[in-house]
Design a protein that fits this description.
By secondary structure, the chain is α+β, with helices and mostly antiparallel strands. The chain has 18 helices and 5 strands. InterPro entries: Fun_TF (IPR021858).
């Protein structure tokens, strides 16, 4: 029923094999914490309450009941974390039963990653070429059916289109983006990203009604919007492109819910002199962070354009930076690498699971730290030689080594049978951020660079993106830093380099000059997927 052309495939098992690979490899990445949910309803999230033994304790002078005496109170933070599911595989397969294009694209995606798996060590086998041929063939069949609609959108011929555009077209574009990620991160993915924007702004696009908020179509639409916004937000940090504002199409009541995703309430316990701060955090599993973090990352990129526009003064600019820093501080989860000398049961869910939940929360903290690093370098003009950058880079790499290298060495779980690798894709952006800010004059420079390459080797066959391209970009950044450092190293004057005088003058202002981030990291032509 699906397509008569399937019989042309040389291997009769290719179809089921590609779909099976999609089920066991790609699906967990798009829905990484699925096996830890106690509720089968894909709308209801799991709730985890963490009482971290390493919680900060601060002293406060608080006046109680108009008493003239002031008391010392310690603050203890209790974090209630809700983890929201990603794209449910069974829902998508069910949805694709009535849409051969989506089914073909799923097969194409599975085949492409099977091709990558068979070329993991840099040597192509006969099976590798077969999977590449299958991927291209499935892709050809899907594009043949969807191309007329795409051409109408590109040429803005909506008046000639009968009927409406549905969510099926949007998820098809998302699958095409994922395919291009695996296809050496072909720049076509940015074309499909912009085409998705055009689709969403089309008067022919039909959004599921509010009364259908729990419907399958609505859940797929929600994932697509989050996915597109996520890819755009991450990619813009390296290429500094304009914002397409995908999440403007979310339902109003959903946006109100999101604004409350991080809330804090304080309760004073007069008997024990403790202030208990209750913090509610909503995390999206496949993103590896709170969606509010995506908003901050986009805000940082948008504000970076103002450094040269002069449409804002430095006082307001600095206030906006301080506000973003405060928002980042409020997102801190207080999750640290477990001390094996103590109990590792830092976090428990409703089934008592600890290890995977702890690793997931730690990966979310890595992304928050990376956003703080992005803020410091992109907006506040910090450099790899600054102490705050050095400590952030070291902290990020320490956690990355634990999550990716140490855990994978100790794990007996394979890619296909568990979630040990499922959140790796969410860590590509932090690796890029930290690796870009390794100081060439730091004694740990070479060891951190080697660690970066080790991590990328581990990620190559366990993520959706093309890590080889990202690795090459990072190596080029290192080369640029090494080249500049070698030219000024031989020109010291009283312990200062030639650039130090200019740097000290520029530090007195925040705007109007090219900073270290813009000089070494940003490149408008990257068009890379940092996920």
């Amino acid at each position: 029923m699906i397509i008569e052309g399937f019989k042309m495939l040389q291997d009769a098992n290719s179809l089921s094999h590609a779909l099976n690979y999609y089920i066991h490899f790609i699906s967990p990445i798009l829905n990484p914490m699925d096996q830890y949910y106690y509720n089968v309803d894909n709308i209801q999230p799991i709730e985890i309450v963490t009482t971290n033994p390493n919680t900060e304790e601060d002293e406060y002078d608080i006046q109680v009941n108009n008493d003239n005496n002031k008391y010392k109170y310690k603050q203890v933070t209790k974090i209630s974390i809700t983890i929201e599911k990603g794209l449910d595989l069974h829902s998508l397969i069910k949805y694709s039963q009535n849409n051969s294009i989506i089914f073909l694209l799923m097969l194409s995606l599975g085949s492409m990653y099977l091709y990558k798996l068979n070329t993991d060590q840099g040597t192509k086998t006969g099976n590798a070429q077969q999977w590449l041929n299958n991927a291209r063939y499935f892709q050809y069949l899907a594009l043949k059916r969807i191309q007329p609609i795409i051409e109408q959108l590109i040429n803005q011929q909506e008046e000639n289109i009968n009927g409406k555009f549905g969510v099926d077209l949007l998820i098809s574009l998302v699958l095409l983006i994922l395919y291009e990620f695996s296809n050496n991160c072909n720049k076509n993915w940015t074309i499909y990203l912009k085409l998705s924007k055009k689709l969403l702004t089309s008067t022919k696009f039909e959004i599921p009604q509010k009364k259908s908020i729990n419907s399958l179509e609505y859940s797929i639409l929600k994932f697509c919007l989050q996915f597109l916004d996520y890819q755009e937000s991450m990619g813009r940090t390296a290429c500094k492109d304009v914002n397409l504002f995908f999440l403007d199409y979310a339902q109003d009541e959903e946006e109100e819910e999101e604004e409350k995703s991080i809330e804090q309430q304080k309760q004073i316990d007069g008997t024990s002199n403790i202030i208990v701060v209750y913090k509610n955090v909503n995390l999206i599993s496949w993103m590896g962070c709170d969606k509010q973090l995506m908003s901050i990352i986009s805000d940082i990129t948008d504000l970076s354009f103002e450094r040269f526009k002069k449409s804002i003064n430095e006082i307001d600019y600095n206030l906006l930076c301080q506000d973003m820093q405060k928002r980042l501080n409020d997102m801190k989860l207080n999750i640290n690498i477990p001390d094996h000398q103590q109990s590792t049961e830092i976090v428990k869910d409703n089934k008592g699971n600890t290890k995977e939940i702890t690793k997931f929360l730690l990966s979310c903290e890595v992304k928050r730290l990376s956003t703080e690093l992005y803020l410091q370098c992109c907006l506040l003009n910090q450099t790899p030689e600054d102490e705050i950058v050095y400590h952030l880079v070291f902290d990020i790499f320490t956690k990355l080594e634990y999550l990716i290298l140490n855990q994978s060495e100790n794990s007996t779980t394979s890619v296909g049978n568990g979630n040990s690798y499922s959140f790796y894709s969410s860590l590509i952006w932090p690796i890029f951020m930290a690796a870009s800010e390794i100081s060439t004059i730091n004694e740990n420079c070479e060891s951190l660079r080697y660690l970066t390459l080790q991590i990328f080797d581990k990620l190559e066959s366990n993520t959706l993106g093309n890590t080889n391209k990202i690795k090459q970009i990072i190596i080029n950044i290192w080369k640029k830093r090494d080249l500049i450092n070698s030219t000024i190293k031989d020109k010291p004057t009283n312990g200062q380099t030639k650039d130090d005088g200019l740097k000290s003058k520029r530090r007195k202002r925040l705007m109007g000059f090219v900073n270290d981030w813009e000089k070494y990291v940003v490149e408008e032509d990257y068009a890379i997927a940092l996920t």
